[in-house]
Amino acid sequence: MLPFGCGSERATSSVTVLDIRWENRTMEFDLPAAISILEGTDEELPLKTWMARIDLSSPEIDISVTAADDEDGRMSVGALANESDACLAINGGFYLENDDSFEPVGLLISKGRFLQFATPGIYWDDKRYDVNRSAIGFYDDNRAEIGWVSSRADSVHLWPTPVPNEPGRPGSLPDSISSIPWMVTDAVSGGPALLKNGSTSVTSYQEAFFGPAGTEYHPRTAAGITKDGDLLLLVIDGRQRASRGVSFSELAGILKSLGAVEALNLDGGGSSTLVVNGTLLNRPAGASFQREVVSALTVRCQ
After folding, report:
1. In the chain, pLDDT over 70 holds for what percent of residues?
2. Is 182 in contact with 146 (CB distance < 8 Å)?
3. Distance between CA atoms of 261 and 162, rounded to whole angstroms?
4. Quick one: pLDDT at residue 15?
5. pLDDT at residue 1 tops 70
6. Is residue 26 part of a domain?
7. Per-residue pLDDT averaged across 166-191, rounded?
């Protein structure tokens, strides 16, 4: 839920490789051929995880970012999937509670509607850090892209690198000439980025996610893009006897082993949820209860 204090790793090329056994569970669900569902298990750690691989070029699917429209600003992933007539959904971006209502933190664009600006900066130990945090966006032809973003009014810019922040040493946003307009129809901010151009790059410090939790084991949700343009949606269970969760480095390693070349972390903890055809596949924080969230990545099956 909370975006602050959830990272600690500086940008790094190191990666932790886990010995996960994957089982194809696709045939158990009534899904188009464009979607594969895999369940992963590492009994030694222990660890439980689910992954959906989606061929975004298929005419059988349509992906979007869906925002909660309840009075308090949040809904369960299952409810967001049902509202969108989606066959598959995972939780999306961070959010904060404000006077008994909930609002997204970071960029949120849903079906062409600009719902929240990108986070321009944060304060940490009385210092301001400019940020262009990572986000995943989708074009009107379903193509996905991950990068670092900033926004002004209803325009969004995509940057090739994050702001070079370090704890206690704020960086400066590069000259705008290095950014390009990002003409996506749907987008949700997360962070930190995990993979870039096929290499591990956990940019916690640059995105001003300071604190110890990036190296701690927690439930996680992440999205990745393969070299062929397929979308990988990954949910890791944690905080339970059957699954301890993962660090950011381990999360990056899992996505890289699955073929992702670009990836980012999304909201995690008790929010980490994967729903397929109305059925909750994972156990968020060890339970079957779905925490309400402000956004989800939803996939409609034609």
Report:
1. 94
2. no
3. 17
4. 54
5. no
6. yes
7. 93
Residue 10, domain member (yes or no) = no
Tell whether 220 is covered by a domain: yes
**CB-based burial of residue 20 (10 Å sphere; 0-12 exposed, 13-18 middle, 19+ buried)?**
buried
Domain containing 194 equals 21-301
Strand partners, 243: 240
Dihedral over alpha carbons 78, 82, 83, 89 (to 10 degrees): 60
Query: In sequence order, which ranges of 55-168 are alpha helices (DSSP H)?
Result: 77-83
Contact yes or no for 174/158 (Cβ under 8 A): no
Q: Is 97 within a domain?
A: yes
Using a 10 angstrom Cβ sphere, with 0-12 exposed, 13-18 middle and 19 or more buried, the burial of residue 73 is: buried
The mean per-residue pLDDT over the stretch 36-52 comes to: 97
The answer, as to whether pTM is greater than 0.90, is yes
Tokens of 124: 């940490």
Q: Report pLDDT for 176.
A: 78
Say which residue, 292 or 98, is predicted with more confidence.
292
Q: Give the count of domains, the chain.
A: 1
Q: Which residue has the tokens 């089982």?
A: 23
Location of structure tokens 């290499």: 199
| Terminal CA-CA length for the chain | 32
